[in-house]
Amino acid sequence: MRLGVLDVGSNTVHLQIVDTSPGARPNPTFNYKEELKLTQYISEDNLVSDEGIEKLRSCIKRAIEQSASVQTQELLPFATSALREASNGEEIINSINKAVLKSFSNYFGSLLLQLVLSIALYLSDFKLISL
Fold first, then answer.
1. Residue 99 near residue 57, CB atoms below 8 Å
2. pLDDT tens digits for range 77-86
3. In the chain, helix, strand, coil percent, each to 5?
């Protein structure tokens, strides 16, 4: 199975693709990372600006296109705190759900996602600062 993890963070949109099967070690097969710096688009009122929302949508769209180009079978997207905690974060996530993704998880606490991302980043020599 080809599995993708899409991490929408405060600085980047990062897609890591791994090939995996029961009992086998996940094998990193593809990596795509785009700088976003979402925090630049968050106002003092903790709102993501329209420009920030559009840039976010564009980054996610390109990451999904990259995922499709390598025939990813399942995509596990999630948002980290900058987006989750923005005053309009839930609204943004819901609009992205409708426009771009079928199910965009707005939580970071899922143990499965943490585990999959940690494995994928470890195997591809990326450093994860904190979960």
1. yes
2. 888 788 888 9
3. 40, 25, 35
Which of 16-49 are b and which e, b meaning 16 or more Cβ less than 10 Å from the residue's Cβ?
Answer: bbbbbeeeeebebbbbbbeebebeebbeeeebbe
Q: What pLDDT sits at residue 119?
A: 57
Q: Which residue stretches of the chain are H helix?
A: 50-69, 81-84, 89-99, 111-123
In Å, how far are 20, 29, 56, 92, 124 from 50, measured between CA atoms? 38, 34, 10, 10, 34
Per-residue pLDDT averaged across 90-111, rounded? 63
Neighbouring CB atoms inside 10 A of 13's CB total 24
Crossing angle of helices 89-99 and 50-69, in 10° steps, is 40
- The tens digit of pLDDT for each residue in 23-72 reads 888 889 999 999 999 999 999 999 999 999 999 999 998 999 999 899 98
Beta strands 74-79; 2-8: pairing state: parallel
